[in-house]
Design goal:
This protein is mainly alpha-helical and about 200 residues long. The protein is globular and about 60 Å long. The protein is built from nine helices and no strands. The protein is about 80% helix and about 0% strand. It comes from Pseudoalteromonas undina. This is LysE family translocator.
């Protein structure tokens, strides 16, 4: 079982890292703004699975293999970034399923949202660097690794979900504010710009 003192240090450390604005949080806010919190939950599920994948891989040492094959990792980042930029351009032009109108769109594919969240989390180099540097010190190799990893992953999942929910709710509130009058086009442009920013961020970081 993980040391209580170590867990007491891990929880606030990961919370402050998670709540800090980043690719995943910006994506949550953008989707909360454009499609609402409820449907953004599908992106959150994908992101949580992606973060869990990165965390487990970091602990098991798979990350070191990926670092030895940077070309494959770079391709994943570019593809994911290009996809998000494409969505952002459509939102800016008020086209596509995620553009904002007077009613929240209901035909956004759950699979598309899930994929966005998963790719953004897995292709985030800072996420890998953080997991590689932070998780191993909290794992006691003299004890069973699996129970310790389960506890740390539980903390990570809860913290990430709460943080994304906060950002998505903030995005929805911004949507309600800007949706008054003739501000829909600005909503589309803000959401589209943020989505493109996440895409560029993912591709170039």
């Amino acid at each position: 079982m993980i040391d209580v003192a170590a867990l007491a240090v891990f929880i606030p450390t990961f919370f402050f890292v998670s709540i800090t604005p980043g690719m995943c949080m910006t994506l949550a806010m953008t989707l909360g703004m454009s499609i609402g919190v409820r449907r953004t939950l599908w992106m959150m599920i994908g992101e949580l699975l992606g973060v869990a994948t990165v965390a487990v891989a970091a602990v098991l040492g798979v990350a070191s293999v990926m670092l030895n094959y940077p070309d494959a990792f770079a391709i994943l980042k570019w593809v994911g970034g290009a996809y998000l930029i494409y969505i952002g351009v459509n939102m800016w032009r008020a086209k596509g399923k995620m553009s904002v109108n007077t009613h929240s769109p209901t035909d956004v594919s759950r699979q598309s949202l899930f994929t966005q969240g998963f790719i953004t989390a897995v292709a985030n180099p800072k996420g890998w660097a953080f997991m590689i540097s932070l998780l191993p010190p909290f794992i006691n190799v003299d004890q069973a690794v699996a129970p310790q990893l389960v506890i740390l992953l539980s903390v990570i999942m809860v913290t990430e979900f709460v943080s994304m929910l906060a950002y998505a709710t903030g995005g929805k509130s911004l949507r309600l504010f800007l949706a008054r009058g003739d501000n829909i086009k600005w909503m589309n442009r803000i959401a589209g710009s943020l989505m493109m920013l996440v895409g560029v961020w993912l591709a170039l970081d």
